[in-house]
Design a protein that fits this description.
- The protein has 182 residues and is an alpha+beta fold.
- 16% of the residues lie in helices and 34% in strands.
- Helix 2 packs antiparallel against helix 4.
- The longest helix has 10 residues.
Length: 182
Amino acid sequence: MKLWKVYTLEENNIHLTGEMEEYEKLYPFLWEGESVKKDWDKSLYLEMDPNYPYQNHSDFLNFSVSFLIVSPEALEMFNKIDKNAFEVLDFICGCGKYYIINIIKIVDCIDMEKSVYKTYKMDPDTIVKYKKLFFKWDNIKDNKIFWLKHLEGGLLVCTDEVKNQIENAHLYGLGFELLGEN
């Protein structure tokens, strides 16, 4: 098994923008890693940033690392992978039909003894910066896409299964960086 860092491709996707009051609707939900559906404001309106040149369709839009904004095709693929790993949040998108996927699984699988990292002096359980992460592979179990516990700001990761399904479906807009393999 391989574990991959997941990120949106900055050079290959659009940026969404909104009025300040729209951003204020989002602030309580950033970096949660847990369900927010019951408190979610479906009236959130985001649109394509007119100052950002964009030529191609993307299945994953860049807005926040806290959640993924995905096309209907990407949502269909995620529904086949692990419906318990995320929740779908509706919003109004001024640039087509997209959905917000909030990944709600957090897995404690970093081997804190072997990994090379820096923490806050007052909070030794929160990794601020890392050079090399080692994993407790048994803790990953059947999880396929999730947030790593202990990393400040979060780090979304996936297994080969998710990476391969995204690539095989020719979904566009995500990048992957190998973090480790078992």
